[in-house]
Amino acid sequence: xxxxxxxxxxxxxxxxxxxxxxxxxxxxxxxxxxxxxxxxxxxxxxxxxxxxxxxxxxxxxxxxxxxxxxxxxxxxxxxxxxxxxxxxxxxxxxxxxxxxxxxxxxxxxxxxxxxxxxxxxxxxxxxxxxxxxxxxxxxxxxxxxxxxxxxxxxxxxxxxxxxxxxxxxxxxxxxxxxxxxxxxxxxxxxxxxxxxxxxxxxxxxxxxxxxxxxxxxxxxxxxxxxxxxxxxxxxxxxxxxxxxxxxxxxxxxxxxxxxxxxxxxxxxxxxxxxxxxxxxxxxxxxxxxxxxxxxxxxxxxxxxxxxxxxxxxxxxxxxxxxxxxxxxxxxxxxxxxxxxxxxxxxxxxxxxxxxxxxxxxxxxxxxxxxxxxxxxxxxxxxxxxxxxxxxxxxxxxxxxxxxxxxxxxxxxxxxxxxxxxxxxxxxxxxxxxxxxxxxxxxxxxxxxxxxxxxxxxxxxxxxxxxxxxxxxxxxxxxxxxxxxxxxxxxxxxxxxxxxxxxxxxxxxxxxxxxxxxxxxxxxxxxxxxxxxxxxxxxxxxxxxxxxxxxxxxxxxxxxxxxxxxxxxxxxxxxxxxxxxxxxxxxxx
Amino acid sequence: xxxxxxxxxxxxxxxxxxxxxxxxxxxxxxxxxxxxxxxxxxxxxxxxxxxxxxxxxxxxxxxxxxxxxxxxxxxxxxxxxxxxxxxxxxxxxxxxxxxxxxxxxxxxxxxxxxxxxxxxxxx
Lengths: 588, 123
Prior knowledge:
The complex is a heterodimer of chains A (588) and B (123).
Chain A (H helix, E strand, L loop, with lengths): L5 H62 L11 E7 L5 E4 L20 E6 L6 E9 L8 E8 L1 H51 L14 H35 L4 E6 L4 E4 L1 H7 L3 H4 L14 H8 L7 E8 L2 E12 L2 E11 L1 H36 L8 H32 L7 E3 L1 H19 L2 E5 L8 E3 L1 H17 L6 E8 L3 E8 L20 H6 L7 H11 L3 E7 L3 E9 L5
Parallel strand pairs in A: 12-14
Antiparallel strand pairs in A: 1-2, 1-5, 3-4, 4-5, 6-7, 6-10, 8-9, 9-10, 11-13, 14-15, 15-17, 16-17
Helix pairs in contact in A: 1-2, 2-3, 7-8, 8-12, 9-10, 10-12
Chain B lengths: L3 E5 L3 H13 L3 E5 L2 H11 L3 E4 L8 H10 L8 E5 L4 H9 L4 E4 L5 H12 L2
């Protein structure tokens, strides 16, 4: 029940308005009525006093006196007394014989004109009207006065009757009014109530509900507006529902398991894929803490990881649940504004990838072994022949065998590079880090290239820094591969009489190595792809068919794995300089 | 008395090359084609050094080292691994099991193998 319902308000308003109106009309009418009654009485009394005065003046006084009483001539009972007062204020004659001879103490005695005034009648104590009129009877000197007292009792009685009758009819009218107002107010309220009920129904979600109000007034309009609003709401709702269904369809059919957890790690949403991983039922799981569902031991590490407070925004980890199930779990905090709503957990089944990875790495190992076995057999056999352990060989035989030996070496390099690439891609390109003197390392590499440079008539120079370079942490085998590859390229793609300069510099935070040649350079269009796997420049292909396009790819990976950087500057026909920097680190 | 070297290797060509090299240096050379055969010969002949391949049929190089490490009489025999692969993990593992050196076949010439042998046990 409302404290201040419109119904009550309207009712109070109508009643009080009609009450005030009624009361006002009543008082105005009452005043008017009593005034006119009084006026009429006075007029009548005036007329009568005039008649009496005329009679007296005309000499009828004698007649009157004979009757000894004036009572007979008094036409209505409102006249309380009638006195003829001498100029000496003594009553000469009165309707009541007892009054004769008494003195009248009033200013109106001897008046020259008609006086009407209100006085208190001493006998009864009531307020009456006094009429005093001059009498010209010519008997004595001085002015005689006719005094007449008029009672207002009848007026008062009439007024009281009027009040009584009016009050009764007013009360009746009021009751009638109240009743009318009650029904009318109820009539006004009824459609509002209907509207309220309708809105409640709509509010509860029944968007098909129509509010029917046929009052023809503003409330009907309001009802229609509500119906329109409901229709629009329904449209919007349907559109939203459609979107929601689409999203749910995506979530339900997603190939990854999806879990949405609230702040307390209770399950808000779980998709069928996640159910199939955990083997629990969606209906029973929504709303329950995730820990309840991880009683199975194999899920424990995953559950524990979920229950840990995540400092990192994004988290990813692999979990081996069983031989046939490896999951990669990613957790993403779900934020609304700045507030954390919960966590989105994405479970990606990587069992197959893991298996493929394993197979790939097994294949690579096997292939490497299978390929290297005959290559080493060839290498050793040719070597032992070349070393003349099996007897003397002639010059031609030696040349042929040297050629075969070199071809075999290239094959070995190719296999090694392929193996390196495979390991890089597997993320298993392991680094044996140790504190290394890079200057010494470069010197030994340059030594190994000296004969080749001489053969090609290329000047190979090491521009050493004046100050000794600090030892840094690196994988010397891998960095050796990089430097060898860069020097090999600089010699290979150079002209007879060319020059290769290797420089070493120490900066504040890093050591920079550069290998500068004045060879063929790299075509501008090919420069962006120079570090790509298997990429070989067109000019390079014409000049030399031996490279495998893996060297720079491996070099870049090695340098980046050392948290360094590798780049180059090159201009076609003029030469290329490769640079790499390694951070100065003294501890593993 | 000449020093005894046992080659445990499944690749005939490599055996022949090594044999040639070692015999020329006056070593006694014994050959086994797999790990099982190798272990038998190690126990029987007590070689001064073993040249051991890793990937072999029947019993691999790691298993041979494991068994040698368990046997007090054999655990001190020097071992030089000659293998086609050479991952840091493998090398570390081999050193832990008692290998004295690890040579990757494609990266070394037979002469260098011989040098390592000489360095290890002398002529």
